[in-house]
Amino acid sequence: MDPKDRILVGIDTPDYERAETLVRSVTGRVGGIKIGKEFFTAQGPDRVRQLIGEQKLFLDLKFHDIPNTVAGALRSSLRMRPAIVNIHASGGRAMMTAAAQAAAEEAAKLGVAKPLVIGVTVLTSLDDADLAAVGQRGPASEQVERLAALTQECGLDGVVCSPREIVALRKLCGPDFKLVVPGIRPVWAATGDQKRIMTPADAVAAGADYIVIARPIVAASDPAAAADRVVEELEAL
Ligand SMILES: O=C(O)c1cc(=O)[nH]c(=O)n1[C@@H]1O[C@H](COP(=O)(O)O)[C@@H](O)[C@H]1O
What we know:
Oligomer: single chain
Largest sheet: 8 strands, parallel, barrel
Function: Catalyzes the decarboxylation of orotidine 5'-monophosphate (OMP) to uridine 5'-monophosphate (UMP).
CATH superfamily: Aldolase class I
Number of strands: 8
Distance between the termini: 13 Å
Catalytic activity: orotidine 5'-phosphate + H(+) = UMP + CO2
CATH topology: TIM Barrel
InterPro entries: Aldolase_TIM, OMPdecase, OMPdecase_AS, OMPdecase_bac, OMPdeCOase_dom, RibuloseP-bd_barrel
Number of domains: 1
Bound molecules: orotidine-5'-monophosphate
CATH architecture: Alpha-Beta Barrel
Number of helices: 10
Shape: globular
Helix content: 40-55%
Strand order of the largest sheet: 1-2-3-4-5-6-7-8
Subunit structure: Homodimer.
GO molecular function, one term: orotidine-5'-phosphate decarboxylase activity
């Protein structure tokens, strides 16, 4: 894969004009656009479609609910023509299985390619102490491996994980299981609320299929230059 195609830029803003400016500034420089709850909740599905145009869309709505509701949400989300969608792996076996089935059925019904359905393991903003505080004993890495194995068993295409877990998951889940990796921080960017982080080049060298980057690019004074800087880092590998 061309190194730039591994980069998905998170357009985390509620504002349409701002989002449009950002998308325009990174178009052709990166592999795709991630739209999450901030933009979707403010603007809705039609504006997502309008914003994205021909770009590759990672629709990051992280569904987590009872199986019937998540299956319905998955079906509805396909109208936005995402290439990648995600759900919380901690929603469990029945929820993930229903989601995978709903995505396949709805894609066939609409005559479109089935999006990659990806399970979010442990959010990159959580560390071992955060997990302990919600009753999750054992290191984050173990919970990530447990959820990745379950995700694969349920027939999903891959997981969202932190860069710190890439090597272990590649070994556990094999070469074809997609690893979509946020928590990416170039050395020149602020960490913010992320905890389990790595640089773009280190994450790709470790085996990430896609790296998800928002603030280091979209909050930069020159987003296009920031995107180019990340691409250069990957090309130097
Ligand atoms: O599913 C995601 O994309 C996601 C999962 C996760 O564990 N951590 C995480 O940061 N994300 C998303 O990835 C993006 C990272 O943004 P920055 O920290 O600004 O680069 C945000 O839009 C998050 O919602």
